[in-house]
Specification:
Helix 2 packs antiparallel against helix 8 and helix 5 crosses helix 6. The longest helix has 18 residues. This protein is mainly alpha-helical. The chain folds into 2 domains: 84 residues, Endonuclease Iii, domain 2, CATH 1.10.1670; 102 residues, Endonuclease III, domain 1. 55% of the residues lie in helices and 0% in strands. The mean pLDDT is 94. It is elongated, with a radius of gyration of 18 Å. The structure holds a DNA duplex.
DNA sequence: CTCCCGATAT
DNA sequence: ATATCAGGAG
């Protein structure tokens, strides 16, 4: 068994809870939630999205939203000016160019304002079960470095490295497996290496503070 | 490389 | 009061 397969097997075995993941009912809701989640936690987004999606029912509603009002509605997510503009812009483009549906491929998703590869990969994998890439967020970046899965600093380079070594059947789950482990054990500042189920496979074990 | 920004934990 | 959290665009 390859090292990467051992890592993924162990992570699967220990990833019972997905309680911290973004909550959504439709692809469009996941898209909006993911745009909002930039630089802030999923738990915070989950607090505001139920009310948000009750007020704005879909892309048509967001496309016609008042900017100042939407800014207030998403204020608690931080970066609320950018995020409001992006959500309205993305919604308008979805209505205009994609028939009111969230596009189901990377190239089209990347044309939406506020959507780069991380957000596109989350929507593709979680909502459409399509593996065009691997979502690299701060957790994937950090853990990939510690586990020596990639030496790169740039998220896009990290993603390319991961796509070479992660079996494609695991692409859909890889992001949340690392995110869960990052949140529970492999913290940015004080990782709990002693209780980490991966420590015997980790090149950073013993090197952390 | 700089700007965009609030909530929660300590 | 201060640290921590954790993407995208120009």
């Amino acid at each position: 068994m390859q090292r990467i397969d051992k890592i993924i097997t162990i992570l699967r075995k220990n990833s019972a809870d997905s309680s911290t993941a973004l909550r959504y009912k439709k692809p469009f809701e996941l898209l909006v939630a993911t745009i909002l989640s930039a630089q802030c936690t999923d738990e915070r987004i989950n607090k505001l999205t139920p009310g948000l999606f009750k007020k704005y029912k879909g892309p048509a509603a967001f496309a016609g939203a008042n900017v100042a009002e939407l800014e207030k509605d998403v204020r608690s997510a931080g970066f609320y000016r950018n995020k409001s503009r992006n959500i309205i812009g993305a919604s308008q483009k979805i209505m205009k160019d994609f028939g009111g549906r969230v596009p189901e491929n990377m190239e089209a998703l990347l044309t939406l304002p506020g959507v780069a590869r991380k957000t596109a990969n989350i929507v593709l994998s979680s909502s459409f079960r399509k593996a065009e890439g691997i979502a690299v967020d701060t957790h994937v970046k950090r853990l990939s470095g510690r586990l020596s899965l990639s030496k790169a600093n740039n998220p896009e380079k990290i993603e390319k490295d991961l796509m070479k070594i992660i079996p494609k059947k695991d692409w859909l789950d890889f992001n949340y497996l690392l995110v869960n482990h990052g949140r529970k054990i492999c913290h940015a500042r004080k990782p709990l290496c002693r209780e980490c189920r991966l420590n015997h496979l980790c090149h950073s074990f013993g090197k952390m503070v």
